[in-house]
Design goal:
This protein has 285 residues and is α/β, with parallel strands linked by helices. It contains eleven helices and nine strands. The protein has one domain: TIM Barrel, CATH 3.20.20.70. Helix content is 42%, strand content 18%. Helix 8 runs parallel beside helix 9. It is globular and about 45 Å long.
Amino acid sequence: MTEVKIIECPRDAMQGLHDFIPTDVKASYINELLKCGFDTLDFGSFVSPKAIPQMRDTADVLSQLILNSPTKLLAIIANERGAEDACNFEEIDYLGYPFSISETFQQRNTNASITESIQRVEAIQSLALKSNKKLVVYLSMGFGNPYGEEWNAEIVLKWSNSLHNDLGIDILALSDTIGSATLEEVAYIYKNIIPELPKVEFGAHLHTRPENAKNLVRVAFENGCRRFDGAIKGLGGCPMATDDLTGNMPTELLLEWLNENRISNGVKMEEFDKSYQQARLVFPS
């Protein structure tokens, strides 16, 4: 059994690109990633094509995937309709829902209030359970709030408690949505929240500048996090980040730190190197 789970996020890397990536190119890239040994691939989303046109072909991509590895598939959804669409596919293991502890960001991201979002989570969790899928909830603004709203570790814990104890969510990925988390904040959050909810699998979806990546991984790991999201070359990230150099956690740097410290992660580096080279062809420089 590996010490950490790595979730590779090609969906996050692709979704903000203006030029449409052909379906067969997406599928070919994801098929390479399926050979690498990642725990999970965040491969696509079932959301409005008006909102995220790049992901309008997720079902078609799925039909071209060669699913003969233990890697599981996760699809992002933003409401019950998207969850219903995703639940039609047996190949999908996880549904991912972005829940924000910021009222402002919840409205911007899913056009719903926090109260409405909790109701959505409840409905989506019911759909997921009926379809033999697990719901992963991302707590966006998990490490800070740029809108002047109150933020502290106790608020993060309050919502984590509610999602787990009231709705039965047992995978929560804390998201540094705008890449503002400090090492001290990451350490404090995980150190305090993981012992409070020992049955929850807490993850880290960190947006960062490359030079900060390894230290963020180190601090999260040292304080108990064992689930990390990444994207090759750090592609993607939040379009609202104030720093254009802030993207997703670069998977190559995440792996570098884990391998340097002999932390087992299940990734086959020879296959990963092939995927890294293919990423250069899929994504514009």
